[in-house]
Amino acid sequence: MSKFPRKLLWPCWSAVAVIDRNQLALYLHVPFCWQKCSYCDFYSRPAEPKIVRLYLNRLAEELKFRGPDWQKPVTSIYFGGGTPSLLSPAALDKILQVIRDNYRLAPNPEITLEVNPGDLQSQTVLDNWQELGINRISLGVQSLQQVELKLLGRSHSVSQARRSLAFLAKSEYNYNVDLISALPGQQAEDHLQNLVEILQYRPRHISCYNLQLEPGTPLAERMKQGLLPEISEEEDARGYQQTRQQLKKQNYQHYEISNFALPGFKCRHNLAYWEFRPYVGFGPAACSFNLRERRKNQASLRDYLADSPRNPEVPHEISRLDQQDLKAEYLFMGFRLLQGIDRRDFRSFFQQSLADCYSREIAGLKEEGLLAESGDKIYLTGRGLLLANHVFQAFL
Ligand code: SF4
Questions:
Q1: pLDDT at 16
Q2: CA 25 to ligand 1 centroid distance, Å
Q3: Same domain, 117 and 231
Q4: CATH code for position 223
Q5: Are 329 and 229 contained in the same domain?
Q6: Structural domain of 269
Q7: Would you say residue 300 lies in a domain?
Q8: Atom 2 of ligand 1, nearest CA residue
Q9: Does residue 377 form part of some domain?
Q10: What is the pLDDT of residues 28-81, one digit of tens each?
Q11: Are the C-beta atoms of residues 386 and 349 closer than 8 Å to each other?
Q12: Do residues 266 and 329 share a domain?
């Protein structure tokens, strides 16, 4: 959902020069939603009980079948979607059991459940998730203004969002709150008002994405027809600036373009993507990356279910990445982190120095004031973060 904004906090250097890639992040795509949000182009379908049951059986088959390919220790499990919180505790338990039986779990893996606020309206629900071993919640609040939730086509209300936040705040849960900014007609102050209220609940992690108008979505169509006010880039940049200042004052570390965390609460799962570590995705439309090739399951529940149980493999495509593609993706992901990339890690991964591959591009971007260096680290400057897409294109 995020554009590539604009911003710089002083980078916080990681002590780790070479990233440990002998670990695995697991992603489960749950392709069901209560209703389709007006801005969403993720793959999801209405949650019909019979189809959900078939999906769960198929998911278990896929997990078992692909397990032997992935022997690295699993450090994170992420239920995303879609709306995984619409699954019953029994369904979530079944999936987790299949994972435990077929994968090598690292000690204390991070297990995240994406939650729609409407699905967290009692303490019992939260207790159930905790009992299953789910130790991180990512709550899709998006806004605390009813008019904005309506514009986004969200199925939950502001009062439901506040209620779910209150349960989380009372608990010991490590939880993230998702917010969307840069809505049509939204002023920076409207977004700030959402943020200030969210901060009263003290989530461990906050993701602030600005709205992406995905072609073909109802919201993008309404914008195209001139039915909604234009999104102002200046207002967006002002909102981002205020967000950063507000969160910094409250001790949140800005560690990725759109993500902020209290000390010790960065999202371990998402770091796998940004740090170019292997991950494996299950369910329709889920992606996997084994450090050489990318696999994408077909975005069709019908096709996903079609051959079950005769053929345990689900329909998918594989793209082999050549060295040039890999390097570009490595930089694209690594520069999203405010700490940037480490020359020693690049050299260890590609057996070539960053200077040998990109000295001309780096020199040009430094001259433009878009990249800066400190020791072995190279990272986007404040101006570079504002023009991140321009930076990424230089390496393509
Ligand atoms: S809940 Fe999430 S996945 Fe489902 S339609 Fe809304 S934005 Fe898309």
A1: 63
A2: 22
A3: yes
A4: 3.20.20.70
A5: no
A6: 24-273
A7: no
A8: 82
A9: yes
A10: 999 999 999 999 999 999 999 999 999 999 999 999 999 988 989 999 999 999
A11: no
A12: no
Q: Is the CB of 117 under 6 A from ligand 1?
A: no
Who's near 348: CB < 8 A, 6+ residues apart? Answer: 18
Measured from the CB, is residue 219 less than 6 Å from ligand 1? no
Distance (Å, whole) CA 134 – CA 141: 19
292 assigned to some structural domain: no
Ligand 1 pocket member 390 (CB < 6 A) = no
- pLDDT tens column, 293-344: 999 999 999 999 999 999 999 999 999 999 999 999 999 999 999 999 999 9
Distance of CA 345 from the midpoint of ligand 1 (Å): 36
The atom number, within ligand 1, closest to the CA of 36 reads 5
Is 256:270 a contact under the CB 8 Å cutoff?
Answer: yes
Total structural domains within the chain? 2
Residues 231 and 375 in one domain: no
Residue nearest to atom 7 of ligand 1 (CA): 40
Instruction: Report d(CA 304, CA 302) in Å as an integer.
Output: 5
Mutate to test the pocket of ligand 1, among 29, 40, 160 (most ligand atoms within 8 A of CB): 40
**Ligand 1, atom 8, residue with closest C-alpha:** 40
DSSP letters, 334-366, are HTTBTT-EEHHHHHHHHSS-HHHHHHHHHHHHH
302 located within any domain: no
What is the per-residue pLDDT for 364?
96
